[in-house]
Amino acid sequence: MGEAKSVGGHPSARERENWLTGTLVLFCLASTVVTVVAGLIQVSFGEYSMTLRGAWEAVFNPAVIFNLEAWSSFLFGTEPPDVSTESVVVWSLRLPRVFVGVIAGATLAVSGAIFQAVTRNELASPFVLGVSSGAGFAVLATLVVFSGLSPFLPLIAALGGTLAFLVVYTIAWKGGTSPVRLVLAGVIVNMVFQSLQQGLFFFADDLGVVQSAIAWLTGSLTGTGWAEVRIAILPAIVAIALALAGSRQLNVLMLGESTARSLGMRVERVRFLLSALAILAASVAIAIAGIVSFFGLVVPHIVRNTVGSDYRRLMIGCAFAGPALLVTADVAARLALGGVQMPVGVVTGLIGGPYFLYLMRKQRSMGEL
User: Are the beta carbons of 99 and 109 closer than 8 angstroms?
Assistant: First the structure.
């Protein structure tokens, strides 16, 4: 009977066997409904005036959905087919923003969940650990100085995020790491890379580039299109698929290093590979949506409190909840101030900042410095 109980918040043997639960299914269905509803609201507004019915009919227009020529133009940039004006506006200008939100939300949530397992630290996330700022600096440098390398943004972001995480881990290492040292090192690295980001603006002589870079640094889906979807879709699918495949290893890591080693796991190798996967996932989102602060911290906690701590559930839940929350936040950012479109990163920051402080106060032990 003792196996049925969970210890220290980790899933028990019985819970791990019965990981596919009704709660998880309902949670994923509810998240899907929220994503669809928020997406429909998003496509209903824009400079081109159309009724709600007209916008939604354009979304579900069979002439587009079942048209291979249309999907070829979306995914490969070929010549678009001849369809109604409403369908062109919705499918070429408005829906891509929703799809970018789905991709960025899923990858950021999955990345945050992986970092929390790898570091065994509930306060870990791409933003807190400096990965976001490192990837952000790499992408901003590409946009401002090396614009010809824009097609390689996900790879460049991954390299910048990897460098930042290695610096954080090196600073925090003292015969091992602790939650406090990792967070403090992340704050230091964030400050350094943010200073470097600000310095890059002196090399930008185009006001349009500066304005877009500022919006990008705060995390924004404004102006995103099929080009961003094409850049991110394959790396996002790979990252999420590998994260789902690695959920068992994440469960073992959460048991502690000594237990993981006794079970035959090569802890340092697995931790390195999973960290690289988390960096890839975060970099995909940063490359197309900018730095959406605190998102990777908040979403895994919401999912964990709903479906449980088994990483097989958690990864699936994050893949569904991330899109729902980011698309909804983008709708709020777009409609909150009427005609002014606020960056979605402002909304996530206003929510995530207080939530981060709540988590810090909730922790009984933050480790030794």
Answer: no
Give, in degrees to the nearest 5, the angle at Cα 101 between 30 and 32: 15
Chain position carrying tokens 């730095």: 291
Residue 365 reports pLDDT greater than 70: no
Q: Which has more confidence, 136 or 339?
A: 136
Question: In whole angstroms, what is the distance from residue 222 CA to residue 75 CA?
Answer: 19
CA dihedral 112, 113, 116, 118 (to 10 degrees): -110
Checking if the pLDDT of 157 tops 80, the result is yes
Nearest to 104 by CA among 244, 272, 302, 291: 291
Percent over 90 (pLDDT), the chain: 37
CA 218 to chain centroid, in Å, comes to: 14
- Hunting for tokens 């106060």 — which residue is that? 361
The angle formed by the CA atoms of residues 180, 181 and 184, to the nearest 5 degrees, is: 85
Instruction: Tell me which H or E stretch contains 34.
Output: helix 22-43
Mean pLDDT of 277-284: 90
Map residue 220 onto helix, strand or coil: coil
Counting every residue written for the chain, the total comes to 369
- d(Cα 54, Cα 90) in Å, to the nearest integer? 10
**DSSP class of residue 10?**
B
Q: Which phi and psi angles does 367 have, rounded to 5°?
A: 90, 175
Cα distance between residue 333 and residue 345, in whole Å: 9
Task: State how far the Cα of 172 lies from the Cα of 120, in Å rounded to an integer.
Answer: 14
Question: 320 pLDDT exceeds 60?
Answer: yes
Closest CA to 341 of 211, 229, 253, 247: 211
Instruction: Give pLDDT tens digits for 221-250.
Output: 988 899 899 989 999 999 999 999 999 999
Give the max Cα distance, the chain.
69
pTM given for the model: 0.87
Helix, strand, coil percent content, the chain, rounded in steps of 5: 75, 0, 25
Between CA 201 and CA 214 the distance in angstroms is 9
